[in-house]
Write a structure and sequence with these properties.
Elements (H helix, E strand, L loop, with lengths): L1 E3 L2 E3 L5 H8 L3 H8 L7 H14 L15 E6 L5 H17 L2 E6 L11 H9 L5 E4 L5 H9 L4 E4 L11 E4 L1 H14 L5 E5 L5 H16 L9 E3 L4 H12 L7 E4 L2 H13 L9 E6 L3 H4 L5 E4 L2 H16 L8 E4 L2 E3 L17
């Protein structure tokens, strides 16, 4: 018998047996077990298959030093109102759960852009019982490392679709796209453009799909040229807006997939001496504090960031106690917050250049 934490499990094959089965050295097999990155993909595949085939028990190196009341939160950045809302939600829920939280900004990267191994080691060395990741992209190796070390984790609004079995919390982005577009359609707009973030992201793809669904339900033709990507950058959103305004038949309304990008849209419209909403209507997405500060205040789709973060924390607490959620994906409702940036099309809307 071998001891793993406080439980006993039957002894299985040794690492030497696994290495022999995979045709590699014991140090190489050890690197795979411990999630090291300096292993060729084909070698990693052979070792992983041997581990599974032989039933090797991956014993976490740091079991027994984990602190039940201590977790990590990794956010993409600390200098945005988005991260402020996430921190607020995690802080409130952690207080209720009696947990302490260590906050990190992004995952450190070594030369060449590879994620640093040291961060993961520090995670376990300081005894973290679980991790929340917000808008952070993990590599296959990092996912594997967390699984091998049996560290529970939850993704808050992941950028890309996580692997099967990974627990995540997000907003109802498809419905948000529908709601934003239906609002503009109800005002009488049919030439509705979209300024989205990055292509092939979970949230962005869902919001655009919702936009297209609302157009189809209203019998309005979808125009591919009306969909532009700005990488969540307000200066690039400004350029994409100018491109849309230069089309032979420019849009009369914009659905902007984030509030920060809406600032860039406002800037471009001001450069063309087009007023909001008299000339152009604009709907954002997020309901960040700045959506109330810009002039005119922005009509936007609210996604409940603090509630999403609190929900993720509560799911993590359940996982730390050994309870696996029934569903790996939890989505919270979005809703439209009407302010002063939308109105019916008027005579001062951009006219067709055809």
């Amino acid at each position: 018998m071998v001891r793993t934490g406080s439980a006993h499990v039957a002894a299985g094959p040794t690492l030497a047996v696994v290495a022999r089965e995979a045709g590699v050295s014991v140090p190489t097999a050890s690197k795979v077990v411990n999630g090291r990155e300096d292993v060729a993909p084909e070698t990693r595949r052979r070792v992983t298959e041997a581990l599974d085939r032989l039933g090797y028990v991956r014993r976490p190196r740091f079991d027994g030093v984990r602190t039940p009341g201590f977790i990590d939160l990794v956010v993409h950045s600390l200098d945005t109102s988005w991260s402020g809302a996430v921190l607020h939600g995690v802080e409130a829920a952690a207080h209720d759960a009696g947990l302490e939280v260590v906050v990190s900004s992004g995952l450190p990267r070594a030369g060449g852009g590879r994620p640093e191994r040291g961060w993961l080691d520090k995670l376990t060395a300081r005894g973290s019982a679980g991790v929340l990741f917000n808008l952070t992209e993990l590599t296959t190796v990092q996912y594997g490392w967390l699984e091998q070390h049996r560290i529970p984790f939850v993704m808050i609004d992941p950028v890309l679709e996580p692997p099967p079995g990974v627990v995540s919390v997000g907003a109802a982005n498809w419905q948000g796209g529908v709601t934003a577009t239906e609002h503009l359609l109800a005002l009488g707009h049919e030439r509705i453009a979209v300024v989205a973030g990055h292509q092939r992201t979970m949230a962005g793809d869902a919001r655009i799909a919702g936009y297209r669904s609302a157009l189809a339900s209203a019998g309005v033709r979808h125009r591919p040229e009306y969909v532009r990507y700005a990488g969540s950058d307000d200066s690039l959103a400004r350029r994409r807006t100018l491109e849309l305004l230069d089309l032979p038949e420019p849009p009369t309304a914009f659905f902007v997939c984030s509030d920060p990008m809406a600032r860039g849209v406002y800037t471009a419209l001001a450069e063309r001496q087009l007023s909001v909403p008299d000339s152009i209507s604009v709907v954002g997405f997020d309901d960040l504090p700045e959506s109330r500060w810009i002039t005119p205040p922005l009509t936007t789709v609210r996604q409940p960031l603090s509630e999403m973060a609190a929900t993720a924390l509560r799911l993590l607490v359940r996982m730390m106690a050994g309870d696996r959620p029934e569903s790996t994906r939890t989505e919270l409702s979005t809703r439209l917050v009407e302010r002063a940036s939308t109105a019916a099309p008027s005579l001062s809307c951009p006219v067709s250049r055809s």
